[in-house]
Amino acid sequence: MILERFSEGDSLIHRLDPAARIVAASLLILVIALADRFSTALLGMLAGATFLVLARLPLAAVFGRLLLVNTLILLFWLTLPFSYGDNTLFSLSVLQVRKEGVLLALLLTLKANAILLLLVALLATASFTRIGHGLQRLRLPEKLCLLLLFTHRYIFVIHEEFQRLHRSARLRCFSPSTSLHTYRTYGHLFGMILVRSWNRGLRVKQAMDLRGFDGRFFTLHEQAMQMKDYLFLGAAGLLALILMGVELT
Amino acid sequence: MSARVLLELTDVGFTYPGRKRPALEGINFTLEAGQRIGLIGANGSGKTTLLHLIMGLLRPDTGRLLFQGKPLADRNDLRRLRKAIGLLFQDADDQLFSPTVLEDVAFGPLNLGADPAEAREIALRTLDRVGLHGFGPRVTHKLSGGEKKLVSLATVLAMSPQALLLDEPSNNLDPATREDLIRILNQLGIGYVIISHDWDFLAETCEEIFAMEQGRLARSDHASLHQHRHAHPCGEHPHHHGC
Hints:
heterodimer; A: 249 residues; mainly alpha; 2 domains; two-stranded antiparallel sheet; flat; B: 243 residues; alpha/beta; Rossmann fold; six-stranded mixed β-sheet; four-stranded antiparallel β-sheet; 9 helices; 35% helix; 24% strand; globular
């Protein structure tokens, strides 16, 4: 489930307005994602690493996440070097390792890691709620923000309800197999979850209405960007410009 | 009519759409400021429906409902009613939707126009009042059942209501939390209506008890209704039964 293990902290990055962080991260990620040059990707990684250090996150846990993504990237390394480009670097029996393929896989790896570092350092350092409120302040449609916040709040409740039903089925000796009985049981299970979630949604809405909810969501957290947020945004914007400059010259 | 009357229901009836039998029929009921009323009745006897009617979540088909002597004409009346009367839901998970306890308790005050600093202050004070000092940063969905119940109570109290409606508040509470809740309710100093199956709980928190049966309301006759079997937490020790 969603643990938000990086969101607790009191570093420089943690104290920044989530709205500013969302803008900065989107900007930098866009530039890096479109980059074709190694220098841009490397600089992006350097930027990500700098933010990571500023956020003072537990490095072991961050590397754990990087490892996860890099296992996926391994798939590119298994295919690209053998299939892309014309210049053969060297031959492994029947397979020919191509120069362009190796370079492309390397670029992909650098870019993916740079983006991941930025995401972890800038966005994972805010809780789901704060991201939600940040998006709200960036004028993302209210309904989408509320959807995000409520999904996060109730996914646990729905998960628990599913486990309760599943447990009660297991206690009556249900063991899943490839049979019509199993499919029907799971159909009922998911149907029941749907009905219960719907009913709960109605009750939550009632509870909110009774406490004066009128469609606008107020927050206890920061209401306006401060000097440090503008400074950070300015720095991030400058960085994005530099990356673009490196890319285009 | 006395100025202290908060709510007055006259001959109220309600039938859920698509059902034949009315959920409520000929309900006459008044709630005065400071009055502490218990409602007891079987499952499906219309208790929750009555509370939802009072709060304006449902509209009566017949009869009339007066709040402070006036009918509820528009959204503003409804807003006034909902500020003056707080409803504690049966399932605390329906009531607690914010990620942290502090945010949830502050939700009502923020909606009523308090600024964030004020709302935070009110929320912290209310949490102290229900004995949950320091619970502010806790994550709501990770609380125990008893803690959730008390936080829900705090979310309602934070709007400083003049009266409370509580829907089966003692359900699934351990004895210690149940005692806490009884103590808190007795110290509130405002009136309330409690729905419950739990005679002992009502006896310890209410002055008057009504019985609901098949959508009808009657003042209960203690002598005939007070027949119950229960386990006593204090075992063999002599004790008395609040009524």
